[in-house]
Amino acid sequence: MKQEIAQKQKIRTVAYFDQKIEELKEQKKKFLARRGERVSKIVNETGLADLDITDDEFKALLSETLERFQNSSKSKLQQNPQSDPQ
Fold first, then answer.
1. Are 7 and 42 in the same domain?
2. Helical spans, DSSP H, in the chain
3. What is the pTM of this model?
4. Which end of the chain has fewer surrounding CB within 10 Å, N or C?
5. Does 23 lie in the same domain as 3?
6. What is the residue range of 68's domain?
7. Distance between CA 71 and CA 83 in Å, rounded?
């Protein structure tokens, strides 16, 4: 009964915010796990996991790839500015 009244009156307590923070932390944890699984799956499927390179070399390779795609996206937007999704 008290919870119903509190919800109707929108009373927010420290406990309420603590609960919301914990819920968001759990959502973040699940999101990061799903994202990690996705990346791991792609790395394994493409054979990148089998490369005989150090972690630093692998990070550099991924950074170069990221930069290439970011530059490609920027040049596409500059060529066709009306397609900007914002």
1. yes
2. 2-9, 14-46, 55-79
3. 0.59
4. C
5. yes
6. 52-78
7. 16
Token couple for 85: 């999704």
- Tracing tokens 């795609």 back to the chain, one arrives at 69
Tokens of 82: 């009306």
Domain count, the chain: 2
Tens of each residue's pLDDT in the chain, 86 residues: 566 665 666 788 999 999 999 999 999 999 999 999 999 999 999 998 899 999 999 999 999 999 999 988 777 767 776 655 54
DSSP of 20-35: HHHHHHHHHHHHHHHH
